[in-house]
Amino acid sequence: KIKHLRLRKGLSQMDIAESIGIDASYISKIEHGYIPRSNPNIIRQIAHEIEVPTNLLYSAELKTCYDEQVL
After folding, report:
1. SS3 content of the chain, % helix, strand, coil (to 5)
2. Tens of pLDDT along 2-53?
3. What whole-number distance in Å separates Cα of residue 5 and Cα of residue 58?
4. N or C: which end of the chain has fewer CB within 10 A?
């Protein structure tokens, strides 16, 4: 979900990582599910960077809820 939204905004993992002060590898790990319980503050910052509600990043209904409306 995060990767899909990030790419729709034209952002790289490095773009987001630099903006929020973390390593790009951490973004990669979140996107690939290697960090299943990510720090909620990091998730909020990522959501802010890709301009979506935080709960969307936790939602299982990405396509049906926001794909065409928000993006």
Report:
1. 60, 0, 40
2. 899 999 999 999 999 999 999 999 999 988 888 877 788 999 999 999 999 9
3. 12
4. C
